[in-house]
Amino acid sequence: MTAFSLLVCIVPHDSGEFVTHTATAAGAAGGTVVMGRNIASNGFLQALAIGDTSKDIVYILVSKKEKKSVIRAVMTASEEKRKLCGILFAINAAYFIKTGSIAGGDNDMAQTMTHQMITVIANKGYADDIMAAARKAGAGGGTVINARGTAKPGDAKFFGMEIVPEKEMLVILVDAEKTQAVLNAVKTLSCLEKPGSGIVFCCPAGDFTVLGGRK
Q1: What are phi and psi of 185, to 5 degrees?
Q2: With contact defined as beta carbons under 8 Å apart, do 55 and 92 qualify?
Q3: 67: buried, middle or exposed (CB in 10 Å: 19+, 13-18, 0-12)?
Q4: Taking a C-beta distance cutoff of 8 angstroms, is the pair 11, 211 a contact?
Q5: How far is the C-alpha of 136 from the C-alpha of 113, rounded, in Å?
Q6: What pLDDT digit, counting tens, does each position of 34-45 carry?
């Protein structure tokens, strides 16, 4: 069975197509670009141009044999572009469905998962408060993606939950050893106390790389 990885690149706005074109030229089947904004707190991230600004978040699904060549191609192209700054990391994907078929992975965990991707989905307007709490617990910054809920009005009455269609999805990449501290800080926030107000989950991430901006 072939293992798959989801490569996630967070780059300046309007750079997403550059990343996907580079990845496809290196063997990837394609990519998906969504828009978001970054929240950063320290001078290092601001210097990398990944502060509180508009971002493209690129998702690229690759097979185990394509992974290294695609990462290498994106890194090389980013160095040549110089002005492109951002980060890249990988998440294991055990299965994916394409044109009616399901492909499975061998769940190869040989790579070292040095980071965790913490994802918080909350009602719109709370991402900055959540990020502030995560930052105090050791997180450096996060990326906010506008989203919407899909529950029906009847679900709110049945489950006793307040359904707010407008959501914000906050993605925070942290060193693995800081994961629990960040989770503890986030789950105690008043904006996430009420049932149905949000969810938090995390996934191991590896191959962390800073893209471009080096001389």
Answers
A1: -70, -40
A2: no
A3: buried
A4: yes
A5: 23
A6: 999 887 655 445
Residue 204 has pLDDT above 80, yes or no: yes
pLDDT higher at 158 or 183: 183
Query: C-alpha distances in angstroms, 180 versus 28, 50, 174, 176, 200?
Result: 34, 24, 10, 8, 12
On the question of pLDDT at 185 being above 90, the answer is yes
Kindly report the number of other CB atoms within 10 A of residue 26's CB atom. 19
The DSSP annotation for 47-72 comes to HTT-SSSEEEEEEEEEEHHHHHHHHH
Amino acid identity at 120: V
- Residue pair 74/190 in contact (Cβ under 8 Å)? The answer is no
Share of the chain above pLDDT 70, in %: 73
Q: For residue 196, what is the enclosing H or E element?
A: none
The DSSP result for 67-133, as a single string, is: HHHHHHHHHHHHHHH-S--EEEEEEEE-EEEETTEEEE------S---EEEEEEEEETT-HHHHHHH
pLDDT of 93-112, one tens digit each?
866 665 555 555 555 544 56
Least confident of 47-51, 98-102, 149-153: 47-51
Q: What is the DSSP letter of 13?
A: T
